[in-house]
Amino acid sequence: MDYQLRDRACLVSGASSGIGAGVVRLLAQQGARVVATARRVEKIERLEGVTAIAADVTDTADLTRLAAEAQKALGPVDILVN
């Protein structure tokens, strides 16, 4: 593995299935630190380096909370996937 993403801070929304879940897996495999978010986090695959945070990205209050929690977990975000 190349690990070009090692220690990069990433925030991925829609992470409970499909493309979002695949992106989370790939980022984690490449050594990134990831906050994965979806309305239902119990579907988010538990991987090393991944923090799951429940949030509805259509809700302004949830987005504000998500930003604060992601900042606390990761520091500044390098990569945003939504």
How are the secondary structure elements laid out?
Elements (H helix, E strand, L loop, with lengths): L8 E5 L4 H12 L3 E6 L11 E5 L5 H15 L4 E3 L1
Parallel strand pairs: 1-2, 1-4, 2-3
Question: Care to describe what's here?
Answer:
There is one protein chain. This protein is an alpha/beta fold. The protein contains two helices and four strands, in the order βαββαβ. It has a four-stranded parallel sheet with strand order 3-2-1-4, with helices on both faces. The longest helix is centred in the C-terminal third of the chain and has 15 residues, at 60-74. The protein starts with 8 loop residues before the first strand and ends with a strand.
Q: Report strand %.
A: 15-25%
* Structural category: alpha/beta
Write the element-wise H/E pattern from the N-terminal end onward.
EHEEHE
**Structure annotation, total helices:** 2
Distance between the termini: 25 Å
Strand order of the largest sheet: 3-2-1-4
Overall geometric form? globular
Give the overall pLDDT as a whole number.
94
Largest sheet: 4 strands, parallel
Give Rg in angstroms: 12 Å
Total number of β-strand segments?
4
Poorly predicted segments: none
What's this entry about, in short?
With 82 residues, the protein is α/β, with parallel strands linked by helices. Helices cover 33% and strands 23% of the residues.
Which characteristics define this entry?
2 helices, four-stranded parallel sheet, alpha/beta, single chain, 82 residues, 33% helix, 23% strand
